[in-house]
Amino acid sequence: MNILVTGGAGYIGSHTIIELQNAGHVVTTVDNLSNSNQEALRRVEKITGKPIEFHQFAVQNRAKLEDLFSSHAFNAVIHFAGLKSVGESVAEPLQYYQNNIDSTLSLLDAMNRHGVKKFLFSSSATVYGTPEELPLKETSRVGIGITNPYGQTKYMIEQILKDTCVADESFECTLLRYFNPVGADPSGTIGEDPSDTPNNLLPYAAQVAVGKLKEVKVFGNDYDTVDGTGVRDYIHVVDLAKGHVAALNHTSQGANAYNLCTGKGTSVLELINAFSKAADREIPYVITDRRPGDVASCYASPAKANRELGWYAERTIEQACADSWRWQKGNPNGYN
Ligand code: NAD
Ligand code: WQD
User: Whose CA is nearest to atom 21 of ligand 2?
Assistant: First the structure.
C-alpha cells in the first residue's frame, strides 16, 4: 500500500516506518520537525535500505496537503503528528487544540476530497481518564477524569472520527490507544529524543544512567500498588509499530478502538530496577510528592487486538530497557 504517515520523524512514527517498509509498503511522510529531527528518517532509510519521501510542513497547512494528495494515490493515512506534552498542554491549551485538532480536520478534509478511506489514529490511554476498571478494555468508560488539554484533544478527535464514520459508511477508522511506549529499535541507531528534560519515566531514567541528569524523582510511593509507586503498562515501541501494520492489514467497518498494550503492570521502582540491570549501573532516585493528575495504576487488556488484529506484544520490559540503553549510550545527545 501507499501510505501517508504524518509525524513520521517522531519517536513512534520513525519506528513504525521501519515496520511498514519491511512489510513492503511505500511511505510518504509529512512532519514539521517541531519535535523531531530529519536525521531520524535518514537513519530509518539506512536500516530498511528503502527511501522515504519526506515533506516538511504542518499538517494544518491545507494548501500543501491538497498538493500532496493531488500528486499521490494514498491507500491509507496513519496520523501520528501531534503535540504530546501533558504539562505543556496545561500551559498552552490553545496551541494543543489548534495543532492536534486542526491537523486532523485538515487531513480528513483532504482524504474526503481524494477518496482515501482508511485512517489510523494515534490515540492514547489518556482517553480513559480515571480508569473505572482494571485491566481497561475498549468498552471501558472514556472521557471522564481527563486532567489535561492534551488528553482532551485525543478524546475529542476520537469523537470526530466516530462521527465521520457514521456519516460515511465507507470510511474506516482505527483508534489505536497506546499505553506507555518505551524502548528503541534494536540497532541502537534510532530512539526517543526528547528536545527538553524528559517528562516520561523511561527517558528520564536513561538520562540519569548516562549521567546527564542527577537522579530520578519518583512521584509518590504511597499509592495502593505493589510497592506504593505508580503502575503502568509499558509497551516496547517495536511491538507498538507492528500493531500499526496489523491494523492496516485488517478490514473493518466504522470506527474501531484497540488497546495496544501488554496487559501487564510495572511499577516505577520495578522499571528503574530493570533499567539499572540493563545499563549495569545504579540509578539513583528520590521519592517526592505525587505528580498532580497521575493515577495509581493504568494497564489494559490486549485481548481485542490479539483476537481481531492477530497482534501480540512480544517484547519484555528487560528488552525495552536494553534497547533503550543501547540507543541512549550510543547517542547521548540524541540526533544532535
Ligand atoms: P513525537 O513528538 O516524537 O512525534 C510526533 C511528530 O509529529 C514529531 O515529529 C513532530 O515534529 C510532528 N508534529 C507535531 N505536530 C505536527 C503538525 N501539526 N504537523 C506536522 N508534524 C507535526 O511523539 P510520539 O511519541 O512519536 O507520538 C506520536 C503520536 O502518538 C502523538 O500523536 C502522540 O500524542 C501519540 N501518543 C504518544 C504516546 C507516548 O507516550 N509517546 C502515548 C500515546 C499516544
Ligand atoms: C509513568 C509513571 C509517574 C516520571 C504519559 C501521558 C499519557 C501517555 C503516556 C501520551 C507514573 C512516574 C514519571 C518521573 C516518576 N502519553 N514518574 N518520575 O504519566 O503514565 O503517561 O505518557 O498519550 O497520556 O500522561 O507516563 O512516563 O510520565 O509516568 O515517578 O520523572 O512514572 O508518576 O507513575 P504516564 P510517565
Answer: 180
Beta strand 285-288 pairing with 234-236: unpaired
For residue 314, the SS3 value is coil
- Mark whether 150 is an active-site residue: yes
**Chain segment 52-65, per-residue pLDDT in tens:** 999 999 999 999 99
Q: Is the CB of 217 under 6 A from ligand 2?
A: yes
CA of 65 to the centre of ligand 1 (A): 18
Domains of the chain: 2-182+235-261+300-310 (3.40.50.720)
Which residue matches cell numbers 498532580? Answer: 292
Return the H-helix or E-strand segment holding 267. strand 266-267
pTM: 0.98
- Beta carbon of 126 within 6 Å of any ligand 2 atom: yes
- Rounded to whole angstroms, the Cα distance separating 197 from 212 reads 10
In the three-class reduction of DSSP (H, G, I as helix; E, B as strand; rest coil), residue 2 is classed as: strand
Give the type of residue at 186. P
Cα 9 from Cα 265, distance rounded (Å): 29
What is the number of residues in the chain? 336
